[in-house]
Design brief:
Layout lengths: L16 H16 L10 E6 L5 H12 L3 E4 L13 H11 L2 E5 L3 H9 L5 E3 L7 H15 L6 E5 L4 H13 L2 E5 L8 H11 L5 E4 L2 H5 L4 E4 L11 H8 L6 H4 L7 E4 L11 H4 L6 H19 L4
Parallel strand pairs: 1-2, 1-3, 3-4, 5-6, 5-8, 6-7, 8-9
Helix pairs in contact: 1-5, 1-6, 1-12, 2-12, 3-4, 5-6, 5-12, 6-7
The structure holds phosphoric acid mono(formamide)ester and norvaline.
Norvaline binds next to helix 6.
């Protein structure tokens, strides 16, 4: 039986280091054409309460490549949007579907969904985490550097969902991780403690307010929007607060000379990243985008028991 058959992915911390590396390895094999797992007649449901381009399309394309089908369960077209409880929806969907990916606000909602479901539930982004994104990001790092140990990932910006999964993913991979945020926007201390417990002092987990110190000698610079979905009213207020954390040429100059730049997208050019860096020679953003599909194809194949 495949190691991850029937499993949920609600947080990257649901995986052991070995399991996460297995997923990344499976994604690399799918991307290279070495394997072509198939899940014919399996159905993926997408329950998305927030906007999405990459996650929605890459999950859909991944499921089609596996020979399966997808049902888009837009909250506004279902009773989900009218408040039917997650516990009830979960027990309905698991009678029809084989796997569900959920994008919502509270992590407790995906947890409640999973608790009442007999099929795998995948976190397609909550306010707390974005595990599928980080599987693709780590695949991109592996492609560039051939591994993780001894390399340093620096995240600049808001210490929320993407940062949380990145901290956990780097700790699982044995990669040093530094997170630089403005005061008041630090990552959740529980996540940081989880990452420290995973790394057991074998790799760095550094949280700082000093962007330059965090970037010094780093191999990967990573950022995300300064105001996430649901925080739009706060966006203007955040611009001057986050400005020292912008990925620009000045910061790139103090990173390792081989450093690459990642961004989960969508990007706000001129805010968290400059146009020149985004489109420059250090950017691997478009490979990162592509890797969302390979990583999710691997994840779906694994939880459906096809590899
Ligand atoms: N990176 C990411 O999750 O993008 P979408 O919001 O477009 O899915
Ligand atoms: N932090 C961003 C990520 C989008 C993929 C958000 O939650 O809106």
């Amino acid at each position: 039986m495949a190691a991850l058959k029937g499993r949920n992915l609600l947080s990257l911390a649901d995986l052991t280091a070995e399991e996460m590396m297995r997923l990344i390895a499976t994604a690399a094999k799918i991307k290279s054409g070495e394997i072509n797992p198939q899940c014919p007649q399996k159905i993926l449901g997408l329950v998305f309460k927030k906007a999405s381009t990459r996650t929605r399309v890459s999950f859909t394309a991944a499921m089609y490549k596996l020979g399966g089908q997808v049902i888009d369960l837009n909250a506004n077209l279902t009773q989900i949007g009218r408040g039917e409880p997650a516990a009830d929806t979960a027990r309905v969907l698991d009678r029809y579907l084989d796997v569900v990916a959920i994008r919502t606000y509270d992590q407790s909602e995906v947890e409640e969904f999973a608790q009442h479901s007999r099929i795998p539930i995948l976190n397609a982004l909550t306010d707390l985490e974005h595990p599928c994104q980080i599987l693709a990001d780590l695949l991109t790092v592996q492609e560039e550097f051939g591994g993780f140990k001894g390399y340093t990932m620096t995240y600049l910006g808001d210490g929320n969902n993407v940062a949380h999964s990145l901290i956990l993913g780097c700790a699982l991979a044995g990669m040093n991780v530094r997170v630089a945020t403005p005061e008041g926007y630090e990552p959740d201390s529980t996540i940081v403690e989880q990452a420290q417990a995973i790394s057991q002092g074998n790799s760095e987990v550094v949280i700082t307010h000093d962007a330059r110190a965090a970037v010094d000698g780093a191999h990967v610079l990573y950022t995300d929007v300064w105001a996430s979905m649901g925080q739009e009213d706060d966006a203007a207020k955040r611009i001057p607060i986050f400005e020292p954390y912008q990925i620009n040429q000045k910061l790139l100059d103090i990173a390792d000379k081989t450093a690459i730049v990642l961004h989960c997208l969508p990007a706000h050019r001129g805010e968290e990243i400059t146009e020149a860096v985004m489109e420059g020679s250090h950017s691997r953003i478009w490979d990162e985008v592509e890797n969302r599909m390979h990583a999710q194809q691997a994840l779906l194949a694994e939880v459906l028991g096809a590899v």
